[in-house]
Amino acid sequence: MASTGIQRFQGKVALVTGGASGMGAETSIRLAREGASVAVVGLPDDPRGADVVAQITDAGGNAIYVGADVSREADCDAAAQAAVDAFGRIDLCMAAACILNAHYVSGEVPDDALAADRRAGHIINKPVEFWEKVLSVNLTGVMLTNRAVARYMIAQGDGGAIVNISSGAAKIPMPGSAEYSVSKTGVWMLTRVLALELAPHQIRVNTVAPGVIDTPMALGLSQDEERRAAFERFVPLGRLGEAEDIAEATLFLLSDHASYISGQILHPDGGLFTG
Ligand SMILES: NC(=O)c1ccc[n+]([C@@H]2O[C@H](COP(=O)([O-])OP(=O)(O)OC[C@H]3O[C@@H](n4cnc5c(N)ncnc54)[C@H](O)[C@@H]3O)[C@@H](O)[C@H]2O)c1
């Protein structure tokens, strides 16, 4: 595969959830470019998954697509097993699978379903099913993914590295999005607990908490010049983030360059949530 010259992940195997799109896709491609074999995990039948795998394999890298709903324990266990069946082991994990709200479908612009979620408004009126759906994917899904891969890492006996994707929403309360904010704060605390629990096995666990990034989850912000300009005025570095910005932060934390870093949160956000 065409490389950047840096090969930080030669011989390593990575599992990336949310790998069919956005930052998960970009990180999968960059991991493969630097030598990793990648299990790209996304929802079953997501056509974007095959595109990501093709981008990697067409360039000479190794990748498979694994369909899994991360809110289901059996799917997470099967995804980890599929990575091991294909590549023999698991060394690295990025857990990026997520929904913005109970009706979010990645890659679609806001529609009636999203509007229904918004109409439900604040937590005092929202159906509890909306809350449970978001927590099951965004928080339980990260926990299930982490432990599925960690079990293999522990058995292998030579360490590993995990990056969980949180959000600036983990520290900024967002009225109308309690379930999302709470899930992302939960990811941060889960990361810290796991960092301590897995440290004896030399498995490092860190969090990347992005600002606003131009992916499907930004819901077309980058295409709307007026909204984009208004937003960028609030970002100290003056631009919307790109999936590449998150991939680079994640690759650093997964690499041996971060071999003494665990239990930390990194905010690639252009300075947005500083202070
Ligand atoms: N884009 C932003 O502005 C932004 C900001 C802060 C944090 N984040 C976080 O970044 C991460 C990646 O999101 P993104 O911005 O790349 O958007 P995205 O929509 O491209 O990625 C989310 C991925 O998760 C997948 N997914 C959803 N439910 C799933 C399930 N049950 N099982 C398996 N996969 C599932 C989606 O199909 C999609 O591929 C998420 O954790 C998100 O919360 C995004």
Q: What would you say this structure looks like, in words?
A:
Strand 5 (160-165), helix 6 and strand 6 (203-208) form a beta-alpha-beta unit. It contains eight helices and seven strands, in the order βαβαβαβααβαβααβ. The chain has a single domain, classed as Rossmann fold, CATH 3.40.50.720. With 275 residues, it is of the alpha/beta class. Helix 5 runs parallel beside helix 6 (178-198). The protein has a seven-stranded parallel β-sheet with strand order 3-2-1-4-5-6-7, with helices on both faces. The structure holds nicotinamide-adenine-dinucleotide.
Give the overall pLDDT as a whole number. Answer: 95
Poorly predicted parts: none
Number of separate structural domains = 1
* Helix percentage range: 40-55%
Distance between the termini: 41 Å
Give the distinct bound molecules: nicotinamide-adenine-dinucleotide
Could you spell the SSE succession in H and E letters?
EHEHEHEHHEHEHHE
How large is the radius of gyration? 18 Å
Class of secondary structure makeup = alpha/beta
CATH top level assignment: Alpha Beta
Proportion of beta-strand residues: 5-15%
Widest sheet: strand order? Answer: 3-2-1-4-5-6-7
Largest sheet: 7 strands, parallel
Topology-level CATH name: Rossmann fold
